[in-house]
Amino acid sequence: MKNLQTNDPQIAELIQKELNRQRTGAEMIASENFVSTSILEATGSILTNKYAEGYPNKRYYGGNEFIDQIETLAIERVKKLFKAEHANVQAHAGSQANAAAYFAVCELHDTILGFSLAHGGHLTHGHPVNFSGKSYNFVSYGVNKDTEMIDFDEVEKQAKLHKPKIILAGASAYPRQIDFQKFKDIADQVGAYLMVDMAHIAGLVATGLHPDPVPVADIVTSTTHKTLRGPRSGFILSKIEDRLDKGGNPSTELRARKNLAQKIDSAIFPGLQGGPLEHVIAAKAVAFQEALSPEFKAYQKQILTNAKVLENKFKAAGIRLVSGGTDNHLLLLDVSLLGLGGQEAETLLDQVAIFTNKNMIPYDTRKPMDPSGIRLGTAALTTRGLKEAEMEIIAEVIIDTLISRQARDKKAKAENKEKVLALMQNFPLYPEL
Ligand SMILES: Cc1ncc(COP(=O)(O)O)c(C=O)c1O
Fold this sequence. Notes:
Layout: H1 2-7, H2 9-24, E1 26-27, H3 37-43, E2 54-55, E3 58-59, H4 65-82, E4 86-88, H5 94-105, E5 111-115, H6 131-135, E6 137-141, H7 152-162, E7 166-169, H8 180-190, E8 193-197, H9 202-206, E9 219-223, E10 234-238, H10 253-256, H11 260-272, H12 278-291, H13 294-316, E11 320-321, E12 330-334, H14 342-350, E13 354-355, E14 357-359, E15 373-377, H15 379-384, H16 388-403, H17 410-425
Parallel strand pairs: 1-13, 5-6, 5-7, 7-8, 8-9
Antiparallel strand pairs: 2-3, 4-10, 9-10, 11-12, 12-15, 14-15
Helix pairs in contact: 3-12, 4-12, 5-11, 7-8, 13-16, 16-17
């Protein structure tokens, strides 16, 4: 950062401070991770200079000889990783990937059946303030009140009642495996597209550690920056054929002549975006290559092992886990039974350098800005190299902070923070920077 330090010391200093924050604390936000230095280099490369509207070999600008090769590599690698028929790697982020999926097969105000936001769905799955809720008629299914797992009877009931154009599976805060085949069976009964947003679990899916949506879903969207450990971005996989659109509607005649892959591509460009971010596409290509390695599978297994350590420790301490535990990289803790709100729990953990986020729990009676839960994930700490023994120490600090009143006095907090900082020092982050 030599040049930045000279030319814009203010920004350089803030980046340095953020690096220091990332290095010293314990990052447990379930949607975050630490990318490799190769990915950092690609993201910070001269590719940011290039305009490349269009697709490889069909661009609206000259000079794309090398850009085309980069984007083609990204496409081929992600198709190989997920055994997909078609891939679009231009979505700037997960939200744009979802927007494009809806735009590709729906008319405005068509009905989409998605996972309730209050039960763990994402903002782009129909929140009223989001483009999704404003542009489409979202209806929802949730989790069973007792098991806190997806209620497939309700999915079926809602699907039959609303006859949605799309059934959407996938979540931001659901700690259990998702049975995509069950969703597909229901989609087939009502003639709906099956769309899966695998943003959180993409790394687990890529390595066979979570049921695979790609064989059964028409469209799969994802971010690249969570368990998949790539740059902040998104992508879309799809089948080539559109098994549902038989054409015939004059207003959609142009679209009806396209197959599903073509509809996805034209929904991204020219539908929703302009020039693709080729520096990020290069970084995604690097991430997909990394995810194809045996080390990546070992990493994903360790994510699951580490989450199980937390589950066991929290259960033993009497903390209630939504759905009783976890099958993936994340856990939802009901802190209301500890006499805390989610905001207070998040702040208390921040004070001991453990970064988490407050989160609604199913059937929450509190408000989104101070809900009953917090969400924790193990992807980032596992990248740092923490294994079972270290996760036990982290779990003990969390338990102490959330449960023990004495742990909330200044001295106890300082001691707990010191414990976390000392632990994290053994796992250097970006020593070369
Ligand atoms: C399930 C799901 N989909 C989509 C997104 C949106 O991704 P982005 O923040 O990259 O737009 C997220 C982000 O948290 C997510 O959890």
